[in-house]
Amino acid sequence: MLEVIKLISVLLMFLIITGCSNTKINPCSDETKVYSSINIEIDKKVCFKSIDSYDLNYNKKPEIIIYGNLIFPKIKKSEYDAVILSHGSGGLRKYHNSYVDLLTNNGYVVFQIDHYLNRGIKYDKTFSKVSGITFMNDAFRALNLIKTHPKIKKVAYIGWSQGGVGPILSHFKQATDLINNSKYLFDASVAIYPYCGFTFNEEAKTNNPLLILTGRSDDLTPEQACINIYDKFSTNENKIKHISLEGAKHGYDNPFLFFGFTFDKLPSLHIINDECTLTISKIGEIKTISNEKVKGPNESAKLLDKCSTKGVSVKYSPHATEKTYIEIIEFLKTI
Questions:
Q1: What is the torsion angle, in degrees rounded to the nearest 10, for the CA atoms of residue 312, residue 232, residue 332 and residue 173?
Q2: What is the separation, in whole angstroms, between the first and last Cα of the chain?
Q3: For 202-243, how does the pLDDT look when each residue is reduced to its tens digit (9 = 90+)?
Q4: In angstroms, rounded to a whole number, what is the distance separating the alpha carbons of residues 236 and 234?
Q5: Is 49 exposed, middle or buried (0-12, 13-18, 19+ CB in 10 A)?
Q6: How many CB atoms lie within 10 A of CB 264?
Q7: Residues spanned by the domain of 308
């Protein structure tokens, strides 16, 4: 009986943390139109080409066709601003729909990327199958695509957890200068409980304004690394804003985590030193400050194991969620 209860508990936790997602049908088959430009004003799944690269070194890296959900506000306008959404390691989940509604209700076009489906990934509990930079490469290809729309002007970039790496790196010119075929930069970026384990030289030049929202009780991606980024670069033209949400844990905006859960095998990424802090080399490789290269999933998994301890908790916080909604809209309005 005890074994049955344990099995039910494990299945329940999986359903909750993945947001009870359904089986997805791939909208990008061989016969599907791949968009190189957009001139429509209807909600649509848009297939587009990206680069399938773990880092910013694109030598011998293949292209891949992925898709995004293009969603327009109900009220039609002569011109729009847009927001590109980048999910975390759990993939596209139902709670992301509340952000789509929030943004479209405030007049923004939304382009919601699915980084996983065409890569054959459903949920990455290792946090290593792809990198946050993989997501960022997709986001910049999506940016180039959505900017072809004659009515879309400014574009912002929002990412969660591992998907929050891209919004943070897009703030730094050292990273964006390496992005292949990047015609544009984002006008603003938002990272929600992100992995903040990257850094650059204090003199690094910055791009767009960046908002980082962290949970003060987050033990999966603890906020201290994000605080370090803010402290190091907040005086750089005052382009970074950091908001620490009291009592909030990882996944605080996911209602499926209402009762809270503990996962004994997930990593708590709280170890911060030169062996665990990442940066980008001059040729676009991911490496640690101590010069250890992270070329792919195997190196990433070893680094995660070295730079973490096991055991984290996740929990929904309606207060932190509402605060996040308010701060995002206010931030975008200022840009």
A1: -110
A2: 57
A3: 889 999 999 999 999 999 999 999 999 999 998 877 799 999
A4: 5
A5: middle
A6: 7
A7: 2-334
